[in-house]
Each structure stands twice: as C-alpha cells, then as structure tokens.
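note to self: dont lose this again. the chain is below, predicted strucutre after it. 177 aa total, dont forget to put it in the shared folder this time
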Amino acid sequence: MCMETMVRPPKTILEVYQSLPEGTLCQIINNQLIMSPAPADIHQKALGKIFLVIADFIEKKQLGETRSGPSDVYLSKKNVFQPDIYFVTNENVKKFKEDGFHGAPDLVIEVLSPSAAKYDLEDKKDIYEQYGVKEYWCVEPQAKSVQGWSLVNGEFVSLSDDKAIIKSKLLKKEFPF
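---
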C-alpha cells in the first residue's frame, strides 16, 4: 500500500508568491499578484546605465548596498515588490535575508514600462511613501524624463523633474545617464 504525502495548498497570496519558480517576474501589490513580461531593451539599457553610475558611487563611498531587479523587497505580507534599483544604507543592510530585503529601502528607482507605469507612479508610489522609503524616482526611458520624490514628515514631496539626470537629495549627488 502506497501512502501519499498530503501537500497543503497555499492559503495566502504571499504563500502563492513564494511557491513561484525563481525568476518569475511577479510582485504582490495590495495583496494582488501582478505579473509582467520581461522588460523591453530600452528599459534594460536605461536600467543598466543608471545602476552602474549609482552602484559605483555607493561602493566607492562605502554607503551601503545597491541591488537591481529582480530582487524581492518585503514591505509587508501584502506588498512584495521587485524594484528596478534600490539602495540600502549601511545601518539597514542587516535587513537583507536569503530571500530578499525585509523593510523599506532608503532609495528606490523604477524604470517605467508601458505595462507597469500605472503601478509605479500610483500604487507603488503610495505604498513606498506609507512604508517610509526616503527617496523614490521614476524614469521614463524613451524620453529620458525623470520624476522624483523625497519623504518629508511622512509624505512624499516632489523633487526636480529633469531629463537624463537623477538629482538625489539623499545621496547629495547628481547621476546623469
């Protein structure tokens, strides 16, 4: 007689998310699984340029850790994002675990894609603000336009809107791309 092992099906969105194959382009936004296709080439080129200049600066100054997506950021059980780029100060590096970062990164950069721009500019922006991300940037790769926000007294305040340059108040540095 063969005994089958009983496998309990996932009960929460987080459990479903954690059961997905590694590398799945998926996030949990407001307790909903949001899947997206692989980014277009223009997205990847902008992401690469921005990551190189910021990661190089942070490494040289020994300010903390920088990651590029896909890398999980666990803000809560109902919000697990894979930002394009994020930075964590030395004091917050201890929040990295094997499955990703647990907490609010200090700085997040999203390169906008047609399929995800609404989430990045609205839903995720509000959630990043709620969880205390100190600085948030969105880059439109086609036009190379940049929008940024800085957390002041628990609310995002708009930073400069520019072309092809991120003017980070947090890092006290301008990053052209």
